[in-house]
Design brief:
mainly alpha; 3 helices; elongated
Length: 145
């Protein structure tokens, strides 16, 4: 009896897989960007850069970038953000200096150069933009206390 149950269960697997695949193929999925993947959309019509600094929404939020970084090179060899924001150049470039946390290694030791864990700025910092929400959101900023 147990053998027939196991055999029947195994026989159902391909049927379930094929029916699931057929259902997925027939589903009408709309993209969040409102266009096909290969269709070019001018982003400046959707995301408008905001001049000046936007207020942060919560404590410890990474600051937003108040300028375009579209042409900035940030890779293993080069980080153009550091040409203005590194502590050695920020004063003469009139740019905000990186937080001291960016100069600490994993053990908390101070470094003279940016830590490798903080090198890729756009992992946390994004350009500020007046962009529509992708999904409904009920988030409220903190009161600032």
């Amino acid at each position: 009896m147990k053998k027939s149950i196991v055999t029947g269960g195994i026989a159902l697997i391909p049927v379930l897989l094929l029916s699931g695949f057929a259902l997925a193929q027939s589903a009408n999925v709309e993209t969040l960007r409102g266009a096909d993947v290969d269709e070019l959309i001018p982003l400046d019509q959707i995301h408008k850069n905001v001049e000046g600094r936007m207020q942060r929404n919560y404590r410890q939020q990474p600051p937003l970038v108040p300028h375009s970084i579209e042409q900035y090179q940030i890779d293993v060899r080069t980080n153009q953000c550091l040409s203005c924001h590194d502590w050695t150049k920020a004063g003469e470039r009139n740019a905000p200096t990186l937080s001291m946390t960016h100069y600490l290694d994993r053990e908390g030791r101070e470094l003279d150069h940016i830590a490798g864990t903080r090198y890729f700025c756009n992992q946390c910092h994004v350009p500020q933009a007046d962009a529509p929400a992708l999904v409904d959101n009920v988030f409220e900023p903190s009161s600032g206390n």
